[in-house]
Amino acid sequence: MTRRSPARQVEDLAAIQHQVVGCRACPRLVAHREEVAARKTKRFADEIYWGRPVPSFGDPNGRLLIVGLAPAAHGGNRTGRMFTGDRSGDWLFEAMHRYGFANQSESSGRGDGLELLDAYITAIVRCAPPANKPGRTEIVACRSYLIRELAALRNLRVVIALGRIAFNGFLAAWTEAGWQTPRPKPKFSHGAAVTLSENVYLLASYHPSQQNTFTGRLTRPMLHSVLREARQLIET
Fold this sequence. Notes:
Layout: H1 13-21, H2 27-39, E1 57-58, E2 64-68, H3 76-79, H4 87-98, E3 119-123, H5 136-152, E4 158-162, H6 164-176, E5 193-197, E6 200-205, H7 210-213, H8 220-235
Parallel strand pairs: 2-3, 2-4, 4-6
Antiparallel strand pairs: 1-3, 5-6
């Protein structure tokens, strides 16, 4: 059963990502991502950094959408692909592979052979922010891309938001896109499940950042439980 969206022209996801890559809307983010790409870090000193907004990627017909916060300075900002080349991606793709949403469990670069299966990955902000903390105006400025992606993902059944900012940012985009949001507004907590419509569900997880994984706030079984629930919801 496909989701019925508010009436609007449906864009091609590739066309949206082409516009994402060329975006220079937020001066602070532009300056930071380009400075990081120029200075690099010692362990990647011999690599050419992407240094631009990082496009979403995956299966355009996917039923699962994963929403992150923003590219990592030396992860996606270096490799040009979300959750690629950093430890957050190691956790995420291992869990996605376990539940059949990726063809492999590791991701090191755009040429590593990774393919998402029935899944699409996006983020609230497409540029690496200083201290990994985008500003409110930057989040709002980037929201139009997510709104357009939501219209284009015609088979969407389950959304996983990684972290509180992604959770709230997705709900804001969902509402601005013209779909109803439950009232009272859902609150973020790991493992929370929200019914958005008769056939679309929102799941919440702590973000697999080192801040959460190193401290034990997020464990692999906790992340697996969210991906397992997504698989169950999709298949029922």
